[in-house]
Amino acid sequence: SLLDPKYYSVAELLLATLEDLLEVHLKTFKWHLTQDVLEGFRHIPVSQLENADRLDNAKKMVETYGPEGAVKISIEILRKMNQNQLSDRLKNHYNEGETTEAAD
Fold first, then answer.
1. Residue 23 and residue 99: Cα distance in Å, rounded?
2. CA–CA gap between residue 24 and residue 38 (Å, rounded)
3. Digit-coded pLDDT (tens) for 51-81
4. Which of 71, 67, 65 minimizes the C-alpha distance to 3?
């Protein structure tokens, strides 16, 4: 549910990650979201991201893919963009938050 604390923490984590992308890179990131990046993950329609700012983007991803999926697809996109430092940081921060809970 959207009130799930995990939803908020992941949305915040994604927002922090997107804050570190320049505007031009954010555009590329959003473009990737409208493509089929990972098997089993449907793309997000262009119209839903067109005027989305970083926060909208983060929330939309968690709504569409769930917390774990949103992190997974973000890491994949960042790697495609050669933003390896950001993708590693996202992965590490997410895993730190996950260690206390068993994955379902």
1. 33
2. 22
3. 999 999 999 999 999 999 999 999 999 999 9
4. 67
State the sign of the Cα–Cα–Cα–Cα dihedral 36, 38, 39, 43.
Answer: negative
Q: Is residue 14 part of a domain?
A: yes
Decide if 90 contacts 71 (C-beta within 8 A).
yes
Supply the range of the domain harboring residue 92: 5-98
The total number of structural domains in the chain stands at 1
SS (H, E, C) 5-46: HHHHHHHHHHHHHHHCCCHHHHHHHHHHHCCCCCCCCCCCCH
- Write the CATH number for 46: 1.10.533.10
Model pTM?
0.87
Q: State in Å, rounded, how far the first CA of the chain is from the last one.
A: 15
Residue 103 lies in a domain: no
The predicted-structure confidence for 76-90, as pLDDT tens digits, reads as follows: 999 999 999 999 999
